Amino acid sequence: MSSDNHGHDHEPAPGTAEPEKGEVWGTMGLFETPEALYHAAEKFRDAGFKAIDALTPFPVHGLEKALGLKPTRLPFIVLTGGATGLTGGISLTYYVNWDYPLNISGKPPFSWQIFIPVYFELTILLSGLFCFFGLWALCRLPTYFHAVNRHKSFPRATDDGFFLTVEAKDPKYDAEKVKALLEKAGAKEIEEVCS
Known about the structure:
Blueprint: E1 24-31, H1 34-46, E2 52-55, H2 63-66, H3 74-99, H4 116-138, E3 162-167, H5 175-185, E4 188-194
Antiparallel strand pairs: 1-3, 1-4, 2-3
């Protein structure tokens, strides 16, 4: 085992074949600090790359701006869920009161004030469900395998490694230029990964 890999042995076991590789997915570079990753992301963004991403063991403040990411659509998905819950609650209580009216103490058949807890609960319930499933959809989950898993040091992404990825689908992608730009930004263990 080599010590430069934090004790991980990435050589295939004797008698086992190398896993079959697919088409090139992109290039990954490892950075030792979040600051280095942040500045590298800015360099790639400023160079015009669009299909870039970062993999970090903890949130890095401002990294989404350094990557040039658009704001998430999740708040609108949650708002849609809340509006659906509120509308559904009002429709349900209106329907059951007109379909089966109860004349209690001369109150009108539909008195919305008594149903505020129902409206509140349905709004919160559907907001939460839309948030959960919307996040799964936006993150393309479940994903059982991703090309980034092929990088020999990828397990460090949950410990102390900060990765920048550039996908091959980017119009500006050129493996040699990307590698040179990653090296210039201070990346280590630069690898081209396949799907």
